[in-house]
Amino acid sequence: MELIDGDGYRQLLEAISDAYTQGRARAAQAVNTQLIETYWQVGRHIVEYEQAGNLRAEYGKALIGNLAADLGRRHGRGFSRSNLIRIRQFYLAYPKGATLSHQLTWSHIVEILKIDDPLERSFYAQQAVREGWSVRELIRQKENALFLRLAASKDKAGIRQLAPQGQILEQPADLLREPYVLEFLKIPEPYRVSETQLETLLCDHLQPFLLELGKGFTFVGRQYRITVNNTHYRVDLVFYHRILRCFVLIDLKLGEVRHQDIGQMNLYLGYFANEENVEGDNPPIGIILSRHKDELLVEYATYGMSSQLFVQKYQLYLPEREDLRRELEITLREAAEGGVAE
User: Where is the YhcG PDDEXK nuclease domain (predicted)?
Assistant: First the structure.
């Protein structure tokens, strides 16, 4: 075989390879879209049959089992009893059409259908699409109660907006989660780690940490040195946020945050704003992550400071979902009692 070399050939090879890869991706997406639409239609047929009164009550529970057996014999896999239950539930959850759902795989949808609350279910569907979550990441975000953590810091209007739109990043406060959950570090309880060890573990688990921080974060460095009047300081972790176009500085604290820690972070923000920012960059954001947070101290220590400086809690274990859910219910109930408009 005659060897062909040169830039023209390499460009041809890349063009064909890209076209093939993109074509396969589009074909897979088309197959997935058709599968989701088909399952929605199957769910509609089941529900309409039930609602039309074609089924006597005593045989209601047997319908799915009979369909699973008969459809399985005709078409093979895909019509197990458990899958038919989910297909029926899928139609009931989205009776007006599978609008957003065609952007997700059936495995994503099955995980989302396990959520009872419609607000929470809507959020995870939106967020899975917005951030391109794998099924594994969707499961993790459900387990560490991302929706409840985000909702805990919002008012009723904010919660209602969060459900149909997901988390939209428009301002620094939109980055925040309370608390940040670092269960992926798998630090045994009772934990005994230093700040340096915690920082090292986060860097060793950078991918899940970036997922916990949220969409748009890119890692810049650790122990980032800055020098002011011949005095050296080091920022624990430095990121750049592609969407908000700004540096995000993170300092880690094992105990309670002191007012000196807040003043030091404010110094870091001033330095980055004047020495590291380039044209087009927005003011930097500072986040102090701490195991404990004295709200009153933070309020007084940040008085008159930049609104870009935040003190947030983190925890090493999964949050108590029921505690977070109670907080959410209290917020919604208080808003309703106070006459807040929908």
Answer: 174-328
